[in-house]
Every structure is written in C-alpha cells, then in structure tokens.
C-alpha cells in the first residue's frame, strides 16, 4: 500500500495541475456549431481547452468515421449525445456522437474546416480552459496527422 501511495504521489508531483476557467456557451438554431466554436476560441485567444459537455441537436453535419479517408455528410434530425475533444487557437481534435429519431447512434471525427454542422434547436457547451497549458499540433509521422503537443 505504501508503494502504491508513493508511486501516485510521484506521478502527481511530476504533472503540475493547471488552473481552469469554465466557459458556458449556448448556440442557436441554424448556427454552425463548428464555426461558432472556432470563432469563440479565436476571439478569446484560448490556448488550451477541453470540451467538458455538450447537449443539443443538429440538422446536418460532416463526420469522418474510423479509419476512413473521406468525410460523410449526414442530414436529418439528430440529438448530440457527446462532443469531446481538445481545442485551441493552434488546432483541434474533436469527436461527436449523434443519435437519430430511432436512437441509432453515429459518430466519429468532427472536421473544423468546410463543415456545415448546422444546429437544429440548440447547442449548450461547457469548455474548460487550461490556463497554464498550450495545446499545439505537431505532425506525427506514424499516420501523418497533426497530433496534440502539450506545452
């Protein structure tokens, strides 16, 4: 037990905890959730944030499914079941999960460029800004994507 406690203490001490500021947002019908989120990040010069929660609904959205090169546009009435990711003025990596009128789920990578991700009723989002951290992006040669680089 003492060894486990010592290991946990060493891990905690090697990773300093940063201050967090909460941002509560509500977007409205026919707004583009992707563009509004990016605009908010840019206006507020947020250098590191995570999406804590999101509820709402969409009319259409482009999603890239697992291990697929192309994005697929989906249209209809969808509940936002989950929106998670890291986001900053330096880039983002966001995933979305949606359910249709029968409760069938669909989800994947949410692109932050050329995406008409249109809100149906609302999108209520809580961002957690990590004040002493920078989320940058760096090319990872493993698969060729810009991956998270924490400063």
Automatic annotation (TrEMBL):
<protein>
    <recommendedName>
        <fullName>PPC domain-containing protein</fullName>
    </recommendedName>
</protein>
<dbReference type="Pfam" id="PF03479">
    <property type="entry name" value="PCC"/>
</dbReference>
<dbReference type="InterPro" id="IPR005175">
    <property type="entry name" value="PPC_dom"/>
</dbReference>
<feature type="signal peptide">
    <location>
        <begin position="1"/>
        <end position="19"/>
    </location>
</feature>
<keyword id="KW-0732">Signal</keyword>
<feature type="domain" description="PPC">
    <location>
        <begin position="17"/>
        <end position="151"/>
    </location>
</feature>
């Amino acid at each position: 037990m003492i060894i486990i406690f010592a290991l946990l203490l060493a891990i905690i001490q090697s990773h300093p905890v940063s201050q967090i500021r909460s941002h509560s947002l509500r977007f409205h019908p026919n707004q583009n959730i992707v563009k509004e989120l990016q605009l908010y990040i840019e206006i507020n010069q947020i250098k590191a944030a995570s999406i804590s929660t999101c509820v709402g609904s969409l009319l259409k959205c482009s999603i890239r499914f697992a291990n697929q090169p192309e994005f697929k546009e989906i249209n209809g009435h969808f509940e936002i079941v989950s929106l998670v990711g890291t986001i900053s003025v330096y880039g983002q990596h966001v995933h979305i999960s949606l359910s249709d009128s029968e409760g069938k789920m669909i989800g994947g990578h949410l692109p932050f460029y050329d995406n008409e991700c249109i809100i149906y009723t609302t999108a209520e989002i809580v961002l957690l800004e990590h004040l002493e951290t920078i989320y940058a992006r760096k090319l990872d040669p493993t698969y060729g994507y810009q991956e998270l680089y924490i400063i």
